[in-house]
Amino acid sequence: MAISRRTFLGCLTAALGTTTGVSTIARAASNKQFTGYPDSFGVLHDSTKCIGCRKCEESCNQINELGKPDKPFDDLTVLEERRRTDEAVYTVVNKFGNTFAKTQCNHCQEPACASACFVKAFKKDKTGAVIYDESLCVGCRYCMVACPFNVPAYTYNDPLTPKVTKCTLCHPRIIEGKLPGCVEVCPKEALVFGKRTDLVKLAWKRLSENSDRYIQHVYGEHEMGGTSWLYISGLPFEQIGMREDLGTASAPELTSGALAAVPIVVGLWPVLLTGVYAIAKRKDKIARQEREAAVQEAIGQATDEMNKQLAQLKDKMTKEQQTAVANEVKKALEEAAKKAEEEAQAAREAAEADAGVDESGDADAPEAGKEEE
Amino acid sequence: MDFFTLHDFMTYSKGITYLIMGAILVFMPVYWLYLTDRDD
Amino acid sequence: MDQVKSKEPYNWFTPFNIITAVVLAVGLVLTVMRFTQGIGAVTNLDNNNPWGLWIGFDLLCGVALAAGGFTTSAACYIFGLKRFHSAVRPAILTAFLGYALVVFALHYDVGRPWKLPYPIFVSQGTSSLLFEVGLCVFLYLTVLFIEWTPAAFEWLGFKKLRTVVVRLTLLLTIFGVVLSTLHQSSLGALFMIAPSKLHPLWYSGYLHVYFFISAMFAGLSMVIFEGTLAHRWLHHKMDDTHLAEANGVVLGFGKAASFIMMGYVGIKVIGLAVDNNWHYLSTGWGAWYLVELIGFVLLPAILYSVGAREKNLTFIRIAAVWTVLGIVLNRFNISMVAFNYHLPAADRYFPSLPEIGTTIFIVFVGITAYRVITAKMPILYEHPDYKEEH
Q1: What number is the average pLDDT over the span A289-301?
Q2: Spatial distance between the Cα atoms of C261 and A50, rounded to a whole number of angstroms
Q3: Residues 6+ apart with CB under 8 A from A169
Q4: Cβ separation of A112 and C190 shorter than 8 Å?
Q5: What crossing angle do the helices spanning C159-167 and C129-156 adopt, rounded to 10°?
Q6: How far is A130 from chain C (nearest CA, A)?
Q7: What is the mean pLDDT of chain A?
């Protein structure tokens, strides 16, 4: 079955050439381009062919040994509920009107879970499968936060060995050359397994040949950087429970900006912070020096002032002393002059008194004699 | 080295980057000490 | 003064001690349940909501509110604002306890906690922002521990060891700022991988910048808030330097927080413009967004400014609590309220009582550790032997 399909797809490739089926390219910041593993596999789900028989669910359950479900797989009433994948169910089929949508891990070309995982527990394999390694998993569940399709589940009720669960694309079977369980069992060929590049072309061939039956969109070709699982549908994907607002940027592209900021912070923060520290320290030092200089100057000024005052005082004292001496001398002289005047006066009076007796004679004699008294 | 996915490429290149970051964090303080040890 | 106080008979039966005992007892029961019956037995987490209260509060809020350590030590040792010196030790201690509790809480949240060293020592998922967070939290916890050891060495009387560590202060501070910048921002960047799950008003290419900037004013506000609590309850442990500087710390930090918050409002508006998200503002989500941005960032920033201008410490203290609540609201919005906004109401998450109980338990473990350490070690006062140093 698989072989015949692959042969068919090979012819198809030749027929269509390279005009369609351009795979999404993930770019690093430097415009490095990554197109995913060449020849990786994928599955195309044609929801117009799906009849909601739940055979794929049953096969998946058996291959992955997930235990007996609450309701048997031939009970089709469960299709009416909205179900998602969980720890015991790796794939579910939901009914939307008369259309059935199958959900399982889409095996992204650039898996968000792998990008998010801080212990490399997820790996995109060259077969196209995204494989999970339980032995590394810490159980942070960031992969579940990251997955845009809400696929991974966690065994919350296991206290000792809880783990993430999801579809493996039947990786062990692919390696053995077998088909994934769901593809093999599908009675209506709603699932086609093959190389992803071929599947993209097949999908577009169906869309273009039956443009009235299909929405002209291959879901998974570009969503979140492209997925290994591809979907074509007669109803808008939004109406069959598939989000159309995911965008085409892959998970590593979404986080590359923030991740790129990390090494730059490590490179520049120490430079910046040490610089700020050095400037603050230098400011402190200058402030301290200025303070010290001001103190020195103040001390100097005070000394000068004191000296000046001292000198002034000395000067003043000397001057005062001199003035005092001068005054004394002056006073003495004045007194002396006064005395001389008085004596002269007295002598004159005496002389005038003597003049009656002896006007010509020795006028000084009695005065001198008087003084001697 | 050949990388087929951006994720693999980033895991590798960021791994090297983290090692360089560690080296920078060790080297820069030492270099600062060398640069300033003759300052008074 | 410590010795004098401790000679008085200690009254164990205060209301707060009784509450603490009850919370710790309940927490131990929940711990046993968690580790014997699994995460599912105690939480409302499910496959659509893998992260709940333990990540939204214990990790995101815990780390943001412990940012006081790096902001305070950077202000004092790098920017040379020595008047904040007495605030550094309590801030470092709360940061250390905060981060220790974050790691402690993660043991409850992750599935196999004994593998927590794996990302660093076994298998390095370098493409993951969570790897960056894990590595930085591990390194920063180590840095905070070393920064805290001088207090322990002073208490124990190991003078030589203390001298060695004190000489590393600047180096440790710069490392602390680098590591804090990285993991505070990376915590926000964790959500950049899921643009389809986080409401566009909260999702932004600037998420890492928003987380870093908001962590700065969260840290400053937390220092003010913790200071208020410590003054109320541990006043007798404080020395004159601490008491004399405390008001200056409150005023200075309030002023800084207010200015950073205004800058944050600015870049949030830029975020709206860059992604052209204006039209969402008229929706219910928009109203909630404005409650967060105006009600819990802009208004407390204004209250801070009035407090700083009027030298009104009460205003600043109220603004600090208000801002802390705003940070919690922001982290809750991003990790829980606006996360998975597209899911039908039945698939949305609300924490279970045991989850809330465990979170309260972890907070009380932190408070108890803080009380024990400040009672024994020179945190709120300077050790008499080392008073003259700085």
Answers
A1: 90
A2: 56
A3: A41, A43, A105, A107, A127, A128, A129, A130, A180, A228
A4: no
A5: 140
A6: 15
A7: 86
CA atoms within 13 A on the CB side of C146: 19
**Low-confidence residues of chain C: pLDDT under 70:** 1-9, 387-390
Cβ–Cβ below 8 Å for C174 and A247: no
* Segment A26-55, tens digit of pLDDT: 766 566 788 889 899 999 999 999 999 999
How many angstroms from the chain centroid is the CA of residue A8?
A: 51
Query: What is the token pair recorded at A157?
Result: 């009720």
Residue C219 burial (CB count, 10 A): 29
Cβ within 8 Å, pair C127-A246: no
In this complex, is the C-beta atom of A142 within 8 Å of any C-beta atom belonging to chain C?
yes
pTM to 2 decimals? 0.85
Q: Longest Cα pair distance anywhere in chain C, in angstroms?
A: 65
The chain C residue lying nearest A118, using CA atoms, is: C125
Report yes or no: A225 and A36 within 8 Å, Cβ to Cβ.
Answer: no
Query: What residues in chain B have their Cβ under 8 A from chain C's Cβ atoms?
Result: 7, 10-11, 14-15, 17-18, 25, 29
Mutation to test the B interface, candidates A266, A268, A273, most B Cβ within 10 Å: A266
Kindly determine whether residue C171 and residue B14, on different chains, have CB atoms separated by under 8 Å.
no
For B1-40, what is each residue's pLDDT tens digit? 688 999 999 999 999 999 999 999 999 999 999 999 888 6
The Cα C331–Cα A2 span in angstroms is 50
This model of the complex carries an ipTM of 0.93
